[in-house]
Amino acid sequence: MPRFDRRSNFRRRYRKLGAADRSAVDRALRWLAANPRDPRLRTHKLEAGQRWACSYAYDGRFVFTWKADVITLLDVGTHEDVY
Questions:
Q1: CB-based burial of residue 31 (10 Å sphere; 0-12 exposed, 13-18 middle, 19+ buried)?
Q2: What are the residues whose beta carbons fall under 8 Å from the beta carbon of 65, sequence distance 6 or more?
Q3: Which of 7, 9, 16, 65 is least enclosed, having the fewest CB within 10 Å?
């Protein structure tokens, strides 16, 4: 099971999310840990280097890097906020 490394920007934006969005992010992170390619997450690679993105809600995304067993969470928020 991968280990999550939450960067300061991710932690700061996560705290600003509403309770429902935080719960949705937590659920998506459990899915990501179990299977990074789970179709419910709509995981996709971004054009900018080694970054990936997942959806936790219709307009909610988080951006991360993925190396071996470490997933580094970089940003979280709306589509407009994180891209």
A1: middle
A2: 50, 51, 52, 71, 72, 74
A3: 16
Q: b/e map of 50-61 (b: 16 or more CB within 10 Å)?
A: ebbbbbbeeebb
CA distance 48 to 27: 26
pLDDT for the residue 83: 81
CA 55 – CA 38 distance, rounded (Å): 11
For 4-22, the pLDDT digits (tens) are 999 999 999 999 999 999 9
Residue in the structure block whose two tokens are 């900018």: 48
CATH H-level superfamily of 3-82: RelE-like (3.30.2310.20)
User: Quick check: pTM over 0.70?
Assistant: yes
- pLDDT under 50: residue ranges of the chain: none
79 HSE (CA, 13 A, CB side): 4
